[in-house]
Amino acid sequence: MFLPICLIRSYSICTTSQPLGPEPALGVYRRDLQMRLGRWLVNQHGAQWRGLCDTQRQAHEFISGPSLGTRAKFMTFNRTQSRAVTGLLTGRNTLRRHLYLLGLLDSPLCRKCGVEEETPAHILCECEALASLRHAYLGSFFLEPEDIRSLGLGGHLEL
Length: 159
Known about the structure:
about 55% helix; mainly alpha; elongated; single chain
């Protein structure tokens, strides 16, 4: 069913000005455009995240993907907290393996246990020297990467 042109014009965003362009003029709500653009951006972000599987192995190990709730939580952190969480979850921080790969250290071994390479997975899941701290702050002596993903951002700050 088609509406008469006079009814269609009454739904335009800016009713005080004359529509520009060919007739009939169809109004588009600003909120509708914002919602569609927001959904498109979320879909693009998700597609880009899924396409980075080969290059961002450590980040994919602990981060399940783009999330509006996680973004809101992350925005509440100060600079020090956000740097610590980002570095720990992505592996781009001052852990020994990263510094070793940059050529800044001679050994990538863990500074706490000295047995394995100091990586985010080792610190958050495996290091025996940090097991009591993990239990106190994260609720378990030893964790799996899936457990870290389900904790949310708040749990990482305590360690």
